[in-house]
Amino acid sequence: MAEKKSGLYELTKGLIKENPTLVTLLGMCPTLAVTTMASNGIGMGLATTFVLICSNAVISLLKNVIPKAVRLPCFIVVIASFVTLIEFILKGYIPALYDSLGLFLSLITVNCIILGRAEAFASKNGVFHSILDGLGMGLGFTLSLFTMGSIREIIGTGQWLGIDLHLPVTMTMFIMPAGGFFTLGAVIALVNKLTKKKPPQEIGCANCPNAANCPTFNKENNEVKEAAAQ
Amino acid sequence: MKSLLVILLSAIFVDNFVLSKFMGICPFLGVSKKLDSAAGMGAAVTFVMVCATLCTYPIYMFVLMPMGLEYLKTIAFILIIALFVQLVEMVLKKKVPSLYSALGVFLPLITTNCAVLGVTILNIDSGYSIIQSVFNALGAGLGFTLALLIFSGVRSRVNAANVPETFKGVPATLIAASIVSVSFMGFSGMF
After folding, report:
1. Each residue of A111-130: pLDDT tens digit?
2. Which residue is closest to A186 within chain B, CA to CA?
3. Which of B174, B181, B184, B188 is the best substitution to test chain A (most A C-beta atoms within 10 A)?
4. DSSP string, chain B
């Protein structure tokens, strides 16, 4: 289905229209945790983009080899391998970033954006489109992380990418956990305002890209339907 | 050497996994709509966290370490957790149907919950012994449950409140979470 769409569409849809964090609300944990500084946001975003492109490409190549029943564990192994690779790269070349991202670098493995794209896109589409999709989604993720990081760094510390802005007032709360929730809420509200779209009412199983294949969710749904039918 | 009680309490309050470490945000926002499902999810996560720690710790110490394969811990741990969750689901379904009907719905969602992988890696990184690790996992699970329970209460009030149109739904929920998180900041510096 998506094969018919142009490569440019696959690349750009992740930036704004289907932005993984702000519109489909996936990958919230790293979004909130590493965005205390704009540079961390970029680092995390690019690391995730790398994993996303590679895993999308590999999964798309293997899509006819992996048996349907065990595909999720297979996807996770592919993703975890690339996460280990990026850990090595960052540890070797950018140790400062490696230290500040810390545990969240390993946790890219369970970032639902990556598994979600593998399941919803790469396992159904060709390699070229999957790479473009991964690149677009990754850049969209990086963009929203950078925005979050900039807002929190400027208001929280009065600096931006390490440049002192000489602000008269700074609010330390913004680089604390509470500020993360607040900033994300405000940014999502702003995006809703600008796009004049009804805000997503809830985050739940239904928004998870794995929902269609998740046995539990389907069971739950069927139970609800059965209850309604009775 | 931190005492076990300090590890337990600081994992629950000071370093609360959801509100100060941002792990497991998806279930925190997704399952906190009703009090009973929040309690069920919390219990399932606590259970899996403790058992996953018991499974991963020996494997790291006795298999990965002696062979110099520490860097494989992400891959190894996620597979162990996925395997374990699957196993627990099957055992509970067969042997303890009552518990399965209470926790079963939440189990498959836990595999990709970053709090579980997070706690197992964190145990290794902080150099805890196996008993300390179990207490840390227990505290993390209880803290997760506590945050979920408190937030489901807050959320029922937020849903009833009259918020501006643009903030309805997720933005209002996130801002409520921010206020709950402020209250947990009061615990910082306790130990």
Report:
1. 878 888 888 888 888 888 88
2. B171
3. B174
4. ---HHHHHHIIIIIT-TTTTT--SHHHHHHSTTSHHHHHHHHHHHHHHHHHHHHHHHHHIIIIITTTT-GGGHHHHHHHHHHHHHHHHHHHHHHH-HHHHHHHGGGHHHHTT-HHHHHHHHHHHHTT--HHHHHHHHHHHHHHHHHHHHHHHHHHHHHHHS---GGGTTHHHHHHHHHHHHHHHHTTTT--
- Are A182 and A81 within 8 A, CB to CB? no
Q: pTM higher than 0.90 for the full model?
A: no
Q: Which chain A residues have a beta carbon less than 8 Å from that of B30?
A: 202-205
Q: Is the pLDDT of residue A181 over 80?
A: yes
- Judging contacts by C-beta atoms under 8 Å, the chain B residues touching residue A186 are 171, 175
Question: Closest Cα of chain B to A70: distance in Å?
Answer: 11
ipTM for this prediction: 0.79
Domain extent listing, chain A: 7-199
Contact map slice: A 201-230 vs B, CB within 8 A: 201-205, 208, 210, 214-216, 219-220
Test B21 with A33 for CB contact under 8 angstroms.
yes
Q: What is the 3-state secondary structure (H, E, C) of B131-179?
A: HHHHHHHHHHHHHHHHHHHHHHHHHHHHHHCCCCHHHCCHHHHHHHHHH
- Helix or strand holding residue A155 (H, E): helix A127-157
Contacts of B184 in chain A (CB under 8 A): 177
- Whether residue B125 lies within 8 A of chain A, CB to CB, comes out as yes
